[in-house]
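assembly run, all chains below
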Amino acid sequence: MSRIAVIAGDGIGQEVIAEAQKVLAVALPGYESTEYDLGARLYNRTGEVLPDSVLSELDEHDGILLGAIGDPSVPPGVLERGLLLKLRFEFDQYVNLRPSRLYPGATSPLADVKPGDIDFVVVREGTEGLYTGAGGNLHTGSPAEIATEESLNTRYGTERVIRDAFERARRRRGHLTLVHKTNVLVHAGGLWKRAFDDVAAEYQDVTTEYQHVDAAAMFLVNRPHTFDVIVTDNLFGDILTDIAAAVTGGIGLAATGSINPDHTHPSTFEPVHGSAPDIAGQGIADPVAAISSTALLLEHLGRADAAVAVSAAVERELASRDSGTQIRTGEVGDRVAADVAGQLS
Amino acid sequence: MSRIAVIAGDGIGQEVIAEAQKVLAVALPGYESTEYDLGARLYNRTGEVLPDSVLSELDEHDGILLGAIGDPSVPPGVLERGLLLKLRFEFDQYVNLRPSRLYPGATSPLADVKPGDIDFVVVREGTEGLYTGAGGNLHTGSPAEIATEESLNTRYGTERVIRDAFERARRRRGHLTLVHKTNVLVHAGGLWKRAFDDVAAEYQDVTTEYQHVDAAAMFLVNRPHTFDVIVTDNLFGDILTDIAAAVTGGIGLAATGSINPDHTHPSTFEPVHGSAPDIAGQGIADPVAAISSTALLLEHLGRADAAVAVSAAVERELASRDSGTQIRTGEVGDRVAADVAGQLS
Ligand SMILES: CC(C)[C@H](C(=O)O)[C@@H](O)C(=O)O
Ligand SMILES: CC(C)[C@H](C(=O)O)[C@@H](O)C(=O)O
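ok done. output:
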């Protein structure tokens, strides 16, 4: 039996996760869930973000389903670093996965693209680079202040995520783009390029390409259909995935997985959107991204059939929508769950 | 008399700079120019990119007009670091300026935008951050390899570029957006935020906003009209300016200045596009970006009237184009120069 830890979190996180669980109930019948009350409420009550005891408990699960964290009452960065990044580092979630598709019914800000035109995956490194926290300040607040940030990169860390990306490319259209900034960041860029070229030699069936991050950012806007799989470092991935979300119709529909492909610790799956305190509690949040994150979870658990069923149901849900009609959170979950049930019965 | 150093460079650099000089001849009558043969040819002949003697000579000029550098025969990064970045650092060009406008006649990949809707400026820091080259590799090429890149930031360096951005915002629509990643890059982000808030107190007439770089990248795609001036660090600026170029119809039209606002050394002005060896020598390269870079040069030299005339002529040139017609490089320069001459006579 799969054991899923559920961190609904703040704001609309609560509402959308309830719908994701409706879908999971039919896609992964009998799964056991444990709810963890983390986020702004816990922090404001106790000053804690992710107590060690909770971290150990989470580690007993097969996967983590997360809604959204963040509230204006909490200083920016505290929950992000203390919860999201902490999970990535503690649970060695080195593959940060972001599928980007333009769904039927979704509205891209781009002209001349239609559903199906955009379909790529970003594989972002999740445990190295500029995200380690290395660096410091001197003479803080004075005119003499200096600040450093250090990007730390290992062959071990780059090779494993590159290998994962090649595997994904092989299961897709067989094209992998490495994105870095080798012409300026020569040290880290050199390491990434060497690791990439070495692994590429083992995947002769996958065609490869290199792009500087600035060019890739531009191409995501003016020719997104040319991408299949992108592999890149932690910070570049952070930026590129948000551009990807934008061109596929907004962050409201995107889901992401922070994945430990070796299953030595649980992986986290979540919608990309935030807690949206402005619309929380009204039952109008769109749970589609949260539901899509269950598809990524199912895939990771080896339930490819169920994952495909959820994705297909999400696609039908989006295609069936009238642009004028107000979303009712609960109805979306009911519809998608019924669709999935029909497919799997 | 203004003394302009001209580095036409490689590929179409030669062709587009010839047109820019036609325009400059009428916009800045009697200017003296010195041509410097730098780029792939010099490198392939001598192994040198920017000899010290040339650097000293360049330093005697009031401005540098650059076409494009780069050729497949030169290893990637060599000319970029040895010429472009060297000029930025040696000449303390701390303001990297990139105006982004959607011109009439230009085609944005975005739906639902029309000329005039997009009009903002990115002020990118040019002498600090991850561009200093600090960092290194250990056990290179082995499974034990590690690589670091260090972002170096000073209060001195951030404050001066932030101040420049506030000045520009004051001369425009009075809104300035700071872009960084303070929730993850806490050290550099903290420094940038402190410097920004301190300078903001002196510019009560400018409204301010902060965005994380990932959010800003997305907003540049799905609501670019909300930006007026953006100030950001060197690497974020590199990425955001290319997104800006994409949404305003491609890098082919964008111009940039690497500016030393204190005039202690010359500033460099150039089109954003590369040397495009594939179309070089055919007389079909669009010189509009190179011509626009003369407008930035004129502005920097205090010739605001001439700068406005060049921009207006470029705008008319783009508006008058038939999308089907092949550009003839030389004709574009003639038309724009004649237009500028008419305005200034
Ligand atoms: C919240 C933040 C720390 C996080 C990141 O920068 O990785 C987010 O932007 C993301 O992409 O998951
Ligand atoms: C060529 C390269 C070194 C340069 C940079 O990264 O700054 C370019 O992309 C730019 O934006 O001027």
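The mean pLDDT of chain A is 96.

Chain A touches chain B through 66 residues (CB under 8 Å).

not gonna interpret more than that til we talk
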